[in-house]
Design a protein that fits this description.
7 helices, elongated, 115 residues, mainly alpha, single chain
């Protein structure tokens, strides 16, 4: 019995490692915060904060898939936005705390506009 339990334990550990999606958290640079602030300002200025919050909250569990989708549409998106800033936004939203950071920036921008 113990050898079977031991084998299952090893298999479980290997599967957990194979599907781990943690990314290393590096501190935000000033230009990252500036980009988040500009995106939040863009959304609030156009009164899109509610749809943006709903979208961000709904895709939170699928953040890595969402960032891959952003990479897929990059050729079209970079016709409108700067490629380096778009890539930076993709990397920010891939972070585990990326959605929270953008939601916080939207909330701060909305409060500063109304207050």
């Amino acid at each position: 019995m113990t050898s079977t339990q031991s084998a299952w334990g090893r298999i479980r550990a290997q599967v957990a490692l194979a599907f781990a999606v943690k990314t290393p958290q590096t501190p935000l640079e000033e230009r990252d915060r500036d980009l988040l602030t500009r995106v939040a300002a863009y959304l609030v200025r156009r009164r899109l904060q509610v749809p943006a919050v709903m979208l961000l909250e709904s895709v939170r569990p699928l953040r890595s898939v969402g960032s891959q989708a952003m990479i897929f549409v990059m050729p079209l998106a970079t016709m409108v936005w700067d490629q380096q800033e778009y890539e930076r936004l993709v990397r920010l939203l891939e972070r585990q705390d990326g959605v929270d950071l953008l939601l916080g920036a939207i909330s701060d921008m909305e409060e500063s506009k109304s207050g």
